[in-house]
Amino acid sequence: QVQLVESGGGLVQPGGSLRLSCEARNIVGIFVMGWYHQAPGEQRDLVAHISNSGRAVYADSVKGRFAISRDNVKNTVYLQMNSLKPEDTAVYYCNLRVGRSDYWGQGTQVTVSS
Q: In this structure, what is the dihedral angle of CA atoms 14, 9, 78, 66, given to the nearest 10 degrees?
């Protein structure tokens, strides 16, 4: 069974930075990893995802502020979040997509507030 183990998140002031990590366990091969976020009462939306080859896609709202990367040896994806804004406040979920299957982490809270 694929397992996604997230770490990072927390409370940060506007303009601050946070780094999220997500390790994928019990899986080998080619797959896309990424991050989604979900604010209360809102749908879950893509933040960024990255392929095995390193091709990354970002939501317009985070371009130039967030950077996604991955370590294929460690099966880990990272999300460096800079210049955080209050509207970035949400639960962030790690996602792994292989074929037509989606796997999700448990979610980690990111709160941007002074």
A: -20
